[in-house]
Specification:
Elements (H helix, E strand, L loop, with lengths): L1 H19 L11 H20 L3 H4 L13 E13 L1 E4 L7 E17 L3 E18 L19 E18 L3 E20 L18 E15 L2 E12 L26 E16 L8 H13 L5
Antiparallel strand pairs: 1-3, 1-9, 2-9, 3-4, 4-5, 5-6, 6-7, 7-8, 8-9
């Protein structure tokens, strides 16, 4: 009972004393040692985090460095073959000829879409290649179709073209995949006709009804191996011409007695070719890392500030 009374007495006295004492401002002069202590303790903990990992664990850690893909350009040279063919109206049975000697000189530029997506580019160039057709022999009759006018069973044309294609690509450290779609314009330079009934005067000459200007669509895809600054490409393309190789109402020539039938027999032949090529391209700038333009921009920021970029 006495212990209880003493406890209550001391408690009550403390409350009264606290209530009668005004609050004094905290003395901050004595807090400096505590702050120094906390700084030392934080540094010690940081050192512990860095140095206390066992070597066995550190040997298993793999650090991957992300490289920034730059906007870059390249020029290239391709060589390939053409599998020539045509889309006819009316249709005719044909086979594709493999014609070597497709040459292309190209310029390609890649840049980021919206300054963020590094998957877009375009290609322009000049190409020399071939167009043509080859009618198949009818196995039942043993005969091969030939045009009434030209009398050719197969034909080969030399063409020069200027293609422009939009391209998407995915770059790796030492490889690349890409695909493109675009248009082209061209001119048919020379012609060679084959068949037993071809007139000698037109075996390597053009008829007045032949169309020599060419244009159409093309698309393709490819793969590249990259050893900076060179790229080695393998590429496949499909080329579809929108310009027939002869005028539609020219099946029967003047003087044949069938000229009026030209109004009935509407014909056309649009090139439809497959091109397989391989080539070497060389970079005109860095694909990865800091470029001269980056260095100039950083220097300008240091001198004038980032707001004046």
């Amino acid at each position: 009972m006495k212990k209880t009374l003493l406890t209550l007495t001391f408690a009550l006295g403390g409350i009264i004393a606290f209530g009668q004492s005004p609050l004094e401002p905290t003395d901050t002069t004595n807090s400096a040692p505590m702050i120094d202590f906390l700084k030392e303790e934080a540094a010690r903990q940081a050192d512990t985090l860095i140095t206390d990992w066992p070597d066995e664990y550190l040997d298993t850690v793999k650090i991957e460095y992300t490289k920034k893909l730059n906007d870059y350009s390249m020029i290239g040279f391709n060589y390939g073959v053409t599998f020539t063919g045509m889309q006819f109206s009316p249709s005719h049975s044909q086979t594709r000829d493999l014609v070597p000697g497709h040459y292309a000189l190209t310029f390609t530029h890649y840049e980021k879409m919206f300054n963020y997506l590094p998957y877009v580019g375009w290609t322009i160039g000049i190409e020399y290649g071939h167009e043509g057709y080859h009618f198949k022999e009818n196995k039942e009759t043993g005969q091969t179709y030939e045009f009434f006018k030209e009398k050719s069973r197969s034909i080969k044309m030399d063409v020069v073209e200027v293609p422009f294609m939009m391209q998407i690509h995915k770059d790796g450290l030492h490889s690349k995949v890409y695909a493109g779609l675009g248009i082209y314009g061209g001119y048919r330079l020379a012609v060679e006709r084959f068949g037993p009934n071809v007139e000698s005067a037109y075996a390597k000459n053009w008829y007045d009804t032949d169309i020599r200007w060419d244009y159409g669509f093309r698309g393709g895809a490819g793969f590249a191996l990259i050893f900076e600054p060179f790229e080695f490409h393998i590429n496949a393309q499909l080329r579809y011409g929108m310009s027939s190789i002869f005028t539609p109402n020219s099946l029967f020539p003047e003087g044949s007695g069938y000229e009026e039938q030209n109004k009935v027999y509407y014909r056309y032949a649009y090139p439809l070719d497959i091109i397989i090529s391989a080539g070497v391209h060389i970079h005109l700038g860095k694909r990865f890392g800091t470029t001269n333009a980056d260095l100039k921009r950083q220097a300008k920021e240091i001198v004038y500030g980032s707001k004046n970029r």
